[in-house]
Design a protein that fits this description.
The chain is mostly helical and 275 residues long. Helices cover 77% and strands 0% of the residues.
Amino acid sequence: MSVQKELSAIGLIRASTASIRSHRYLLREFVLKDIKGRFIGSMGGNLWVILNPLATIITYWFIFSIVLRVTVSQAESGTDNFTIYFLTGFFPWFMFAESLSRSAVSLIENAQLITKVVFPVELIPASVVFSSFIINGIGMVCFLLCLIGFGYFHFIWIGLLYLIAAQILFTWGISNLLASLCVFVRDIKELLVIILMVWFYFTPIVYPVSLLPKAFQKLMVINPMWDFINLYRQVLLQQMFDLGLATGIGIMSLATYAMGTWFFMRSKNAVGDVL
């Protein structure tokens, strides 16, 4: 019986992957529609994709470098510039958090489409994740150009391709879980706001992990986003690529994607009835 259930779970995950692959052109249209819809009616149009992250970089540079003049340890962080230290964790976090926030309500917001048109529902949270990573990824590129200007570029940056792919997979799995759960329990979207706020401050983004008491530092093993942020900083600021950490991130991302996708595929037949 357990083997049959395992095969059924694997079958559902394969079915989702096959559906995404066979409907990749429809997925691309969903992604483009979502990106264009973010700035529809605005005079700046897609220019805001660049202006927003530039404003973020300048604002935090002014706060941390001019007003507060915060510094971090070069030996620990790979830089003594707190603005660079902070933004190296902030941009990956923002890609993750926005994807979850928007995908959680993606099925509810597309209720009319889901109930009137027959198509693979799993395309909706997937398109939200990809569009969020594309839009905020442009901000990440702007930041990387700033890092190049400060002389941080290194060939080890090629590891970012693996790291971003793993983060997309990890985020996608949680997004699938949240999107389906939120249809049945609407309070999740409100709870998610609190969870993301606590999660953000629990992750060493605005402070070095060395500032935490030893007991709290050990708790970082249960925070998957710390693994991502840690590796981003290693690659971008310390010219390192920890293979052990990268392998752990890859396994965790695959497991998260598998579990989230399995839950979504198991519950998607009931989504239309509830919506």
